[in-house]
Amino acid sequence: MTQLTQIQTDFRTAMAHLPAAVSIITTDGPHGRLGITVSAVCSVTDSPPTILVCVNKNSAAHDIFKNNGKVGINILAGEQEELARHFSGATQVPMDQRFAWDIWEKDTDVPVLADAHVKCIGTIEAITEQGSHSVLFIRLDRVEVNNDNSGLVYFNRAFHPIGQPVAV
Questions:
Q1: What pLDDT score was predicted for residue 167?
Q2: Which residue ranges of the chain lie beneath pLDDT 50?
Q3: Does the pTM exceed 0.85?
Q4: Rounded to 5 degrees, what are φ and ψ at 20?
């Protein structure tokens, strides 16, 4: 493993102090079904509705997302920390077992968590490479917000539930 420079170490520490929503990004198609936990999801524009997701180019998931082209973005609810850990690979639960759990919506092109705080489905429209990562620009076809739960953020290298359900 290459030793990090001081600026890389400082950058990683700084980014650990940037609270970020926790999401499980999913795909399914001819190149496989998988999901990964990420905190690098960001709004791009509402015309058309587009978000970006950053994925490490060296990740086994990278080419599967790229080649399938269809993506689910599951922004996690406060009580879904265990799912975040499973999809980060921390628990060693096999991928096929994760998708066998009765937590997924039925009849969707890509896996979408039934109880996610926010659920989106979209198509990768463009990919830009930057350093070790690819930035996937995803045009959204579906967006659904669940106001009955709180959110989950990653801050200072730990998960934290935030907010309260919104009364409508």
A1: 64
A2: none
A3: yes
A4: -140, 140
